[in-house]
Amino acid sequence: MNSTAIIDTNATAVMPWSRLIGAYLAEARSEILRYLRLPSFLLPVMLFPAVFYLMFGVMLGSRTGADASRYLLASYSTFGVMSPGLFGFGVSLAMERDGGLLTLKRALPMPPLAYLLGKALMAMLAAGGVVVLLLVLAIGLADVALTPGQCLALLATGMLGVLPFCALGMLIGTLIKGQGAPGLLNLIYLPMAFLSGLWVPLKILPGLIQRIAPIWPSYHLNRIALDAVGIGHGPIWGNALLLLGVSVLLFGLAARRLRRVG
User: Fold this and answer.
1) Span 3-47, pLDDT tens digits
2) CA-to-CA distance for 196 and 75, rounded, in angstroms?
3) What are the b/e assignments for 180-215, b being 16+ CB within 10 Å?
């Protein structure tokens, strides 16, 4: 495996810049087209948070005021962008390792990071689609008043905020087999969402859950999303730096394991 990594590095070193950029673009295009042709992936990712928001943000939120719909827009955006990162990276990486596709890609004369960057771009675009869909529902059906700046801030939060969950999904994908990946990721995804206050506001949850909420990346992303729609509570730079640190740490651990075991 180390020899493969050396081959990849040498191939990248002698590759002209035009071909290098073309390789990254080709891999990104391949990943995006592959997932566009997988409705079993895209439909749950797009529709799951939208259905939740329709039930709680539009139908029930209209009875409790615009602030509830605004709050749920931020929290369900966070909930929605977790999925492309966790499942788009975790499940696919685990299955591709099992099937030998990752080994084949390592043997190809392509930049070693093109595969992972292609998946990351796919996850960012899927996360952006989730946020846009929720914004349409919030503005069109829940009468949530947002400025263009707030809409763009929430969109940017979602597209960048998916990266820590890409890192977490990538690490899990290097640890387990493909058949077990969906079940394990659901055991992480759904409890993390609940314990971060994405379904129910933290202030009405037990004190223990409120105290441990900051250990979850989704909690910090939700604080940034709430600030983006105008109902933040204090500075968010600490939340952003923590998410950046988590992303770098988990990507580093996952990359180290991939180099060792493939």
Assistant:
1) 444 334 444 455 677 777 777 787 778 777 877 777 777 888 888
2) 9
3) ebbebbeebbeebbebbbbbeebeeeeeeeeeebee
DSSP string of the chain, one letter each residue: -HHHHHHHHHHHHHS-HHHHHHHHHHHHHHHHHHHHT-HHHHHHHHHHHHHHIIIIIIIIHHHH-HHHHHHHHHHHHHHHHHHHHHHHHHHHHHHHHHHTHHHHHHHSSS-TTHHHHHHHHHHHHHHHHHHHHHHHHHHHTS-----HHHHHHHHHHHHHHTHHHHHHHHHHHHHS-GGGHHHHHHHHHHHHHHHTTSSS-GGGS-HHHHHHGGGSHHHHHHHHHHHHTT---S--HHHHHHHHHHHHHHHHHHHHHHHHH-
Q: Mean pLDDT of all residues in the chain?
A: 84
Are 60 and 208 contacting, i.e. CB atoms less than 8 angstroms apart? no
pLDDT tens, position by position, 229-240: 998 777 899 999
Distance (Å, whole) CA 236 – CA 228: 10
